[in-house]
Amino acid sequence: MRPFALRLFAASALGAAALLGCRPMTTPRIPRATTQPGPAPHSFARPDAVRVVHFDWRADLSFAGRAVAGVVDLRLDRADPAAPLVLDTRGLRIEGVEAAGPGAHRHPAAFVLGPKDPVLGRSLTIALDDHDRTVRIQYRADRADGLLWLEPAQTAGKRAPFVFSQAQAILARTFLPCQDTPGVRTTFSAEITVDEDVRVVMAAEDDNDPARRPVDRTYRFHMDAPIPSYLVAFAAGDLAFAELGPRTGVWAEPATLDAARYELADTEAMVRAAEALVGPYRWGRYDLLVLPPAFPFGGMENPRLTFATPTILAGDRSLVSLVAHELAHAWSGNLVTNATWEHLWLNEGFTTYLERRIVEALYGPQRAEMEAHNGLSDLDDSFAHEAKDPALQRLVVDLAGRDPDDGMTNVPYEKGALLLRTLERAAGREAFDGFLRRWFDAHAMTSVTTETFVAFLRERGPEAIRAFDLDPWLYGPGIPAGAARPDPSVFAAIDEAAEAFMSGGRPAEQLPLAQASTQAWLRLLHDLEGRVDARALADLDRAFGLLARDNAEILAAFLELGIRAGYEPAVARAETFLVAVGRRKFLVPIYRALVESGRADTARAIYERARPGYHALSRAGVEAVLAAGAA
Ligand code: BES
Ligand code: ZN
Fold it and tell me: Which member of 76, 252, 574, 607 lies 3.0 to 4.6 Å from 290 by CB, making a disulfide possible if both were Cys?
């Protein structure tokens, strides 16, 4: 804070300047470095004092240098005229900062970077004059953790390089100085230039000719709805587009486009199903971008343009619940946003609940129930591993001083979805659906906390659940009593087959699995965990060709099982899989299986080869597993 006397001086200078009709000649204010997070635990920003409301971004992407050279103009809303602007950065080189008032010339602004925090990065504190309403920052980002630069050889087409961003949770600050908290929403425009003959796409309105690449290699976008920084996203590569429906389509490398178009054919119907549930889709188009296999997640709900892993292209549309999931985020997440990462369940739990409702509408209750069931198994796995700490088993977690990634377990997803399912059963579907819709309408384009939700439930929830005891869910560990668990009978036949196989009573080729769905296979493989030897798995593999599957979910589950049982062909297949695919959810269990089955050296050797193709988030996940193996 500026001392009072200086503020007085500034105020009188302002008065004089108003009389003279020019900018006040104040002494340059030297800002003090911001060293602590603000109201949000993972951001230095003080948006209640000075808030960014819009930005215009120009970025030069250099594949040659794996660098971004950027200029960003920030438009400010200043509630506290004495406060500086505080932004988040990580690994950015700040080359210059200027500020300006309305209609005035830009003037240099004093700034200071705070000390380095390994997770949060460095605050950027910028002194403002009284008139200043915009700030321009010129910067460079080298080796940003929020970007992954790929060589042509790491793409499907092998012809052009590729780069993509992944900003959630707090990586936007590694390529763009911003108030990097989901509690701050901004509109923006962007102009992105590339030094290769590739197309740039962005999660925004696309102002470019889809048929032609501009000669100056500059692509223009804008976003008129206010979005949080974690939803800023772009990619560049050899990309082509195919329509899926009137307002849906898919971008992919030409080599992948046909497979993507086939797999994603139900996308338009999913949008209609979602709208029937929670009201109009408010973002205009809904397109998908299928990324190279290095993409660290299954999907990312970037607005208007979901980013997706190619590992959902199973050839039989059996993994498209991921599309339902990312689409559902257009309501739970993008429209109504968790205000901090401690309330992630408001994004992921609501979304997982809606995902299953969309799957039910399109593919029937049986499939939705199977997916809910498998989700609950994943939750149990989380309780045994990354959410072993009871403090991480709550829906509302305390992440102060921790990496927001620590809270990214199955708990917000599956425990959150289970809570909503439990509320739905108690309220009745019709009443609950009305409530959900009111929730989204009342909080559209705002960022909310769990307290907002609790208050809304108490005031405007269906009568039957207004007084529902949420505390064990929000603040207690495990799964509370009274949870509306999925119906176990959907897997009765599969579980029975698994038992018969494991008891040795039935050889693999006699199991009734020829028509088994992906969901049924995943259940079966889960049933077998820790209970079969290498011979049994060889038998199963011979009968059903599991190591030859293209379905990445089935393959990954079988690899984990095979490695743990010492089935050598699985170890060999794991190596090619781990080098080809960068999706963290698959990598971590497979590396862990290698380490825990006494193959830590093999795991390290594979990682050495595979690492250049992994995103920083995947690297961190794998390195944690390898470190645990070394300990
Ligand atoms: N928003 C998440 C991905 C995410 C969460 C990234 C937290 C960084 C921090 C996305 O919607 C998601 O949940 N993806 C899942 C797929 C889904 C079907 C469960 C994934 O990537 O596996
Ligand atoms: Zn999600």
Answer: 252
Pocket test for ligand 1, best of 166, 180, 300 (most atoms within 8 A of CB): 300
Phi, psi of 105 (to 5 degrees): -70, 150
Which residues pair with residue 97 across a beta bridge? Answer: 137
> Where in the chain are the domains?
13-237, 240-330, 336-486, 518-630
- Is 0.90 topped by the overall pTM? yes
Cβ < 6 Å from ligand 1: which residues?
Answer: 168-169, 297-301, 322, 325-326, 329, 348, 408, 585
Nearest CA to ligand 1 atom 1: 300
Which CATH number does the domain 336-486 belong to among 3.30.230.70, 1.10.150.130, 3.40.630.30, 1.10.390.10? 1.10.390.10
**What average pLDDT score do residues 617-625 get?**
96
Residue nearest to atom 6 of ligand 1 (CA): 168
Catalytic residues, which ones? 326, 413
Q: How many CB atoms lie within 10 A of CB 402?
A: 17
The two three-digit tokens of residue 457, written as one number: 């439930």
- How do residues 529-566 score in pLDDT, each as one tens digit? 999 999 999 999 999 999 999 999 999 999 999 999 99
Q: Which CATH number fits domain 518-630: 1.10.3720.10, 1.25.40.320, 3.30.450.40, 1.20.272.10?
A: 1.25.40.320
Q: What is the pLDDT of residues 501-522, one digit of tens each?
A: 999 989 999 999 999 999 999 9
For 246, the token pair is 């009137």
Task: Put residue 495 in one of left, alpha, beta given phi > 0 → left and psi -120 to 50 → alpha.
Answer: alpha
Supply the mean pLDDT for the chain: 95
Tell me which of 13 and 258 has the higher pLDDT.
Answer: 258
